[in-house]
From TrEMBL:
This is 1,3-beta-glucanosyltransferase. It comes from Zalaria obscura. The lineage of its organism: Eukaryota, Fungi, Dikarya, Ascomycota, Pezizomycotina.
Amino acid sequence: MKAAFIASSIIGAASLVAATPAKIEARATSTSSGSLPTVTVKGNAFWAGDDRFYIRGVDYQPGGSSEAEDPLADTTTCKRDITYFKQLGINTIRVYTVDNTASHDECMSALADAGIYVALDVNTPKYSINRASPAASYNAVYLQSLFATVDAFANYTNTLLFFSGNEVINDDNTTNCAPYVKAVTRDLKQYRDSRGYRAIPIGYSAADVDSNRYEMATYMNCGTDDQRSDFFAFNDYSWCDPSSYQGSGWSTKVETYSNYSIPLFLSEYGCITNTRTFGAVAALYDQDEMTPVYSGGLVYEYSEEGSGYGLVTISGSTVTKKDDFSALQSQLAANPAPTGDGGYKSDGTASTCPEAGDHWDVTDFSGEELPAIPSGAVKYMSQGAGTGPGLTGDGSQNAGGQSSGTATPGSGSATATATTSSTASSTQSGAAGSIKLTKGEFSLAPMIFTGVVAFSTIFGAALL
């Protein structure tokens, strides 16, 4: 994030505002959408077959995250919006919340037919890591929901990637959550592989926190292959029009990550401090400036949800394009992705794990050490996750059964020592899911927990 939003101890709460659709009892599993090549990782780039793949897309959650609804299960809405995706000329949408009990076949097929991939957050408001108590919220009930979401989307050819988390670490005081985020990434990779799915890339979407962005990026790329992310992404609002490659600070970031060995991209961008002309697009897809290090990005966001970031407004079934829509459309048309390999690096070594310091408070699990997978979740590796909880489950953050052991680095298995706890605190605070409830000028991670949303102390900007 561009400024330091701090959300810490909870002192108040408000009920979630909307009920979610009734759960579909049949287990949802994906079937191939068939018309797009699958995307893989080689070196620090994505590839669709032999062609380098650049993410050129938008973040998509019509209705807003507080509704906790699945836009990919609503065929009418999905097909309506595909028309506008095609007009923009994008190839990817990011979706923050899905129902892992619903069918997504029709929407995913329609998206594939339109040449559009899906970058998917696997967390939901009720099933997410709680940044105030990460150990308790990292439990078997939580992982079962995430694994069920993988089951629901793994066989679609246009499932581009899975985000293991979004902005769980949003200041220096929450860096102690990093081992749990990394453990979730490891668990998702092991589940994907143990179930025989293709190597769908799995990684993390980070807040752009000046003081620890480099540490977080290197941490997710350090250690053994089974621990490392397949990619790393930033929610970056540092380019505010009018700006430039140098003026925005992007040139410095490219230099900083010039030797980073996995794909980097922007999981959110599009500052609204001034009128958006999306001048960032020209730099983002310029081979002389960014493509040797970055693989594109996703503009926040498709629909206006009260924060000023929308490219369109939606009223009932009517979609109205805003000036931002035309500006982005023009910039994407004028700045195609480069041909060839874009200057990518074909190989590279893992990063060095950051040491504890004033801005990196990771002491319980140092270096390559990670929490062991909760013992109750080990069976899913061989048996599968079964039916997911969808969006109407009881939630996971008070479920107990969390990890209390340390995994062996490089073991390649999920059988490290862990114990099960049968009790959990009745009060949760500071939970960070993979979606946003509000959006101000900067990227703000939500405080979400079962049935309740709360914000405590916020510094640096007012909520819009």
